[in-house]
Amino acid sequence: MIPAPVHHFLDHPEFRTGVAIGAALTALGAVVGLLAQARRRRVLPLGGLLIAAGFVVGARHASHLPNSIAVGVALLALGGFVAGVAARRRAWLGLLGVALAAPGAVVLATHLQVASGRANPRPSWIALLVVVSIAIGGPLVANFDRRFGARGWPLVLYAVTAVGVYATVPDTERALVLLGVSVPLLLLGWPAALMSLGSAGSYAAVGALVWVAATDGRGRQTAIIGAIACLGLLVIEPAARLLRGRRATVLAVLPTSIWTVLPVAGTHLAIVFVASRIAGLRHAISAAATIVVLESLIVVAALFLYEPPPGAGPEKWEEAG
After folding, report:
1. Is residue 274 in some structural domain?
2. Within a domain: residue 141?
3. Residue 294 placed within a domain
4. Which residue among 78, 175, 250, 299 is the one 20 to 30 A from 5 at the CA level?
């Protein structure tokens, strides 16, 4: 089954539920964010927590959501918070972040079958993919958020990713809730950056998204691979920097302007399109994985076509978790 066209979003109660919750959280976040800007001139690292909390509430209201999923998301948020505190003290963020994300990732991965409501067992590689994707994806997204959160990009890119997940998975009940929650909340990142994902929120939001991909993608296994790959620039850009010895990518020298988000979001959208509508619709798992790997390598190469000078880019933004 292929998802309905974009203009059919409003036909689904799951999407309407998500939008209502997302709009309420956006209004609350805007008030809190404006107060923080007025008093401390800082971007609050709470956007990802709002996404994760909104998804859990919306999914419980719109469809069956086991209590264990909320527990898994909460464990990821806690792990992300600790990792964020450690990052400010220059701890070994990479290995520590993966370890801290592991408990929540395992909880989510071991409750895929409950969510699907099907008796037939799933291939074991799906649970392993979920654990690995969350444990690695959470720290990478948090890394992207630390570097570009003050610009508001992460919330915008996450919303584009949620669109890609919906466009990939054959069963869309939970994907519609996540999409509905994510779209209003992007307004906290653009045109004015009031919030970023935050470290705790990055882990929790990635966990929710990967779980949705594995759950709603059950009818076509390649959709799981494509939907997870829709994280796109959120994971590819920090991974590229780590592979190149933390050297800055071309994104680091983009001018600080509200319009800079347009080329960044456009690039991310192109990555999401290939992952969702090409890789995610293949019949063979090997073909989907090959497309995702090749796309990632091309993007990494493009990010280093121009080598910014040492120290270029936004100042490191310290967050509260």
Report:
1. yes
2. yes
3. yes
4. 299
Q: Is residue 319 part of a domain?
A: no
pTM equals 0.91
Q: State the total domains in the chain.
A: 1
Query: Which 8-state DSSP code applies to residue 63?
Result: S
Q: What is the pLDDT of residue 279?
A: 94
Series of mean pLDDT values for 10-residue runs along the chain (321 residues): 54 90 96 88 92 96 86 96 80 72 96 58 86 96 94 96 96 94 96 95 98 93 96 95 82 86 95 96 94 96 76 44 36
Nearest to 158 by CA among 42, 291, 264, 78: 264
Residue with tokens 């990632």: 296
Q: What angle do CA 34, 39, 43 make, to 5 degrees?
A: 55
The closest of 67, 75, 101, 112 to 214, measured between CA atoms, is: 112
231, burial (CB in 10 Å: exposed 0-12, middle 13-18, buried 19+):
buried
